[in-house]
Recover the amino acids of this structure.
């Protein structure tokens, strides 16, 4: 399984990169997990063109107006798609301005992590943690409890 997190902007702080590295190490038992950083564009459409070039497989975009899922429901997406022959996933985090409509339209799932706004750097860590949690759920690892 291949999971790419497509994110606009660059992580600079060591505590964020350390957290991502830890979850990437944990996820590596189950999947190839990469974060692809894209430069911030002049506008959402410019960023969207670059994001669209990177997308393949099953695409999840983070969107405050998207569907809220439990950890178990998030895990089920991976399990169900793998069963149906889909082994590549892209999870998109836009810039602080959000995502252009073309990227949202390309999404197979718009996923919300609640009605609050998180810093984009933290969102990467949250996605990495929830992805590891999904792998733990699907592999009956006690981490989830």
């Amino acid at each position: 399984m291949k999971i790419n997190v497509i994110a606009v902007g660059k992580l600079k702080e060591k505590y964020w990169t350390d957290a991502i590295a830890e979850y990437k190490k944990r996820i590596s038992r189950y999947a190839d997990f990469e974060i692809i950083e894209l430069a911030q564009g002049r506008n959402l459409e410019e960023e969207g063109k670059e994001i669209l070039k990177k997308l393949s497989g099953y695409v999840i975009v983070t969107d405050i107006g998207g569907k809220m899922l439990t950890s178990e429901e998030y895990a089920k997406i991976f399990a169900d798609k793998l069963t149906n022959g889909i082994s590549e996933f892209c999870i998109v985090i836009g810039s602080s301005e959000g995502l252009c409509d073309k990227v949202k339209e390309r999404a197979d799932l718009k996923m919300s992590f609640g009605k609050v706004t998180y810093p984009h750097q933290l969102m990467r860590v949250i996605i990495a943690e929830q992805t590891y949690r999904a792998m733990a759920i699907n592999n009956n690892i006690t981490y989830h409890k």
In short: The mean pLDDT is 95. The two ends are 24 Å apart (CA to CA). The CA atoms of residues 61 and 92 lie 5 Å apart. The beta strands are 2-8, 32-38, 58-68, 88-93, 109-112.
